[in-house]
Batch of 4 targets.
Target 1
Amino acid sequence: MNIARSFNNWRKYRQTVNELDRMTNRELRDLGIDRADINRVARQAANF
């Protein structure tokens, strides 16, 4: 994997974590996500 792709994946991961972290527990629950699952969901979104 090249450096640019790695950096873009990392940015996507951080953006996803930040967006999910700003949500309330109720909003996360509506999406079927537990607060403890945020990092896992973000890794999947960033193709890690």
Target 2
Amino acid sequence: MPATLPLGDPVPEDGRLPEPVGRRVREAAASGRPRTFSLYVHVPFCTVRCGYCDFNTYTSADLGPGAGRADYVDTAIAELDHAVDVLAASEVPARELHTVFVGGGTPTLLPASDLARVVHAARDRFGMAPGAEISVEANPDTVDAAYLDELARAGVTRVSVGMQSAVPHVLATLERTHTPENIPRAVAAAKQAGLEVSLDLIYGTPGESMQDWRRSLEAVIGLEPDHVSAYSLIVEEGTKFGSQVARGQIPDVDPDDQADKYLLADELLGAAGYRWYEVSNWARDPDGTGARRARHNMVYWLDQDWWGVGPGAHSHLAGVRFWNAKHPAAYAQRLAQGTTPAVGRETPDAEARLLERVMLAVRLDTGLDMSVFDEASPAQRRHARESVAGLIAEGLVEGAEALRGRIVPTLQGRLRNDQIVRELLGF
């Protein structure tokens, strides 16, 4: 969740949603393809701000009434109550939660009892669909067996551990606080608690050799997690890394180096039984059901509905997007005053929604159904269909799937994903 919020239209003080939202949710249910509903809870606290991070995070424990670590959960639960009121007033049918994701920041800086309160409050207000996935992001320094046991008793099903690397000098460059030795302890404690485990990695850090990256991948595979995410380092403007690159203190990322590291990740993870399902994500899938995929992330990639709780959190409901005040103090103050924390919203037009659907779908192993262009302009529809032959010839998409009307990236296509999008859309 980037720290900079977009501009948008004003939001009514009571947060009421435009009329089409409720109608679209009802129509989707009536069609037999109901829109799922999920919850994202942003915990904005960190002990240090990593040099590469541009998320909306704060290192201070006291950010004002209702916004400090000690009382933040009460404010988040107040937004859950607000969400219930807004959905009812907007005539959006009640839906059980499909997934819950508590992210940050570092959620596990809060006591496990606080995170448990959030999960219980969400269940009390919305209910949980059978088999709902409930995930918590964790820094390996901040969890132990007792902490993870308490999360599991609260109903949490999955923990996503920010490993990033198994190499000390890479962790030091990233300004991560944990040591490699903490990772296996956290993973073992999570498994002992009965939680699914995902490990997050970053590749392409300045000074990381190919051997360093191989070492991290082999360490991950040795821990046998259920799921692995591997993200290329992006140097964002406004971050410490961004300033250091601009001043020449550290080198910028090397796209060729990152491509080679991606290929190594896919090779080693594939050989160890992990199947890619999104460009940056792999999961164990011994029975072919995809049960270990990160279902909450699929909510975003498949354009489903979610409510985002917390400062700067974004929400999406049936085509309408809205976002909360960025600073925790401003966020808490609005809720304390009985005003919606949302400060902007937008309803993307057909062209913007098509762009988003194409960008997201061509990152998935299920690919893009070319029928999405049926409602585009005749010229755009014609261009998209004519571009397919070139994409096949360049080896960027699976030929057999493309001939059946579905664009699925090859391994090379995953590396050149942006090119697939540009060629399909003609820009």
Target 3
Amino acid sequence: MKTASLILASALANAVTATPLKWKDWKPLLSPFYFTSTYHVVATPDQVINGTTPTPGEPGAIGHYNYGINSDLDVICFNITLMGVTGGYQSPALTATHIHEAVAGASGPPRIAFPNPLPISDDPSVVRRSVGCLTGPFTTGVLANGTDTGVGFTVKEIEENPAGFFTDSHTARYIPGVVRGQLS
């Protein structure tokens, strides 16, 4: 028994002193926490567009949209923080927080709908957050030609052209968008 314990202790000591695996080198095939790409978007009211017309969102509001994409599994993880946003959400989609497909200066259809950051408040000092992961197939609740705008969409499309996508949130007071930011 003592010999087995010494062998086990020696093996554990060697394992602890082995070179640690770096996060960027870790790619377990079945883990959504391996990201093939990441995005940090700072969304501001001056970037909001209605069609092609600048339509500023809520003055003083700011959004931090952090995304980790695993295109191998069609997973997107999100950590969204909104500050200076007041009032309730409003959108024809399932939620009022999205990734849309469109270049800077243009509007486009939502492709992914995220849970709205909470808590809802009229106090601009309240910080709203939403954190989690979503796996395709995606739905938005918005129809174009009778088909949901999320149908057939994969996160790989974002990786192939991040400049062709933006993220935003919509409120009842700022329906075109309270803040907006391009992914690239």
Target 4
Amino acid sequence: MLAWRYLRARRREAFISVIAGFSFFGIMLGVATLIIVMAVMNGFRTELLDKILGVNGHFLVQPIDGPLTDYADVTARLDMVDGVVFAMPYVEGQALVSGPAGAFGALVRGVRDVDLERLPLVGGTVIAGSLENFDTGKGIAVGSRLARSMGVAVGDQVTIVTPRGNATPLGVTPRVKAYPVAAVFEVGMSEYDNTLVFMPFAQAQLYFNQEGRATAIDVFVDHPDDVGEMRPTVEKAAGRPTFIVDWRQRNTTFFSALEVERNVMFLILTLIVLVAALNIISGLIMLVKDKGSDIAILRTMGATRGAIMRVFFITGAAIGTIGTLAGFLLGVVVCANIESIRQFTAWLTSTELFSPELYFLAEMPADMDNGETVTVVVMALVLCFLATLYPAWRAARLDPVEALRYE
């Protein structure tokens, strides 16, 4: 009761209540900001990981001693490994692709249609055309951004140029060949949608002078985090000298940078909550100064030092607890509607706030981690509780005689 009365604004104590209000809003905004930023960082990592591993395998198996002419047998053995979803041989090369609107560099990958359909980020994201009978046809599948840049649609011809073409007495001449666009896909990651072209496996072997062999084999597994334990089994199943690289080694710099940025942002934003908690200290100290005579009278009426300390501890803890819960609710609401908020803000300011060319993704992700959110809430509560201890201790140590000497 006493703590609640001290929190209510009266004419003489209005300034103290204003400070308590600032402390409340500071803690609420600090907790909400921390939850939102960490959720967006987690969303970035999850989405990028899904996009990267949705197109590239968890293991990359490359030959060492010679060309991969026995790719069919190696692929069959890898498919039998426990925990492997499927293995996909492919032929890959860089080329120049051109259409009516211009020419652009691209990564051309030759795959079998059965494997292409098993890639959910390709087979499940076709926005025009079809991948049916992809092996038997001579068409190609093009990323949506690349198709728009070249000015082509399904059925249009795309010219592919590679410098490694036919060998002649005058040297190697570039190979130029036109293919119709059979399908347009949209992965949702600008790097893939702007550079990736899929070609039938047999056609790619002929085009890149790789008859009867594959460039490498991508292996997809059930649990990407278990690639370290699965490596010896995959190496043994290959049955030939191979060089195997897992997805963590291929993207170590990228994901390490994301992890460092995530940790640094957590530390920086924690300072916002700390500053708000310090406002609780200043507000409570002023409240203790203002309530000196009240404390003295309560002590003379029999209130113990522990009781006085509890009163002011509850006063400060109430600000911190309510502010933390309000910040948690605000953070959850914003994370649940982050894309709608982004679109509204972009419309209101007439600017593109989340460019896919810069951030790789077409939509702003937010993935709240339960453990991380609980950590933020508990950390905010602990900081707020610690901030109330010193003012409450000062109030409990107040000498009634000194407080009432000049009253």
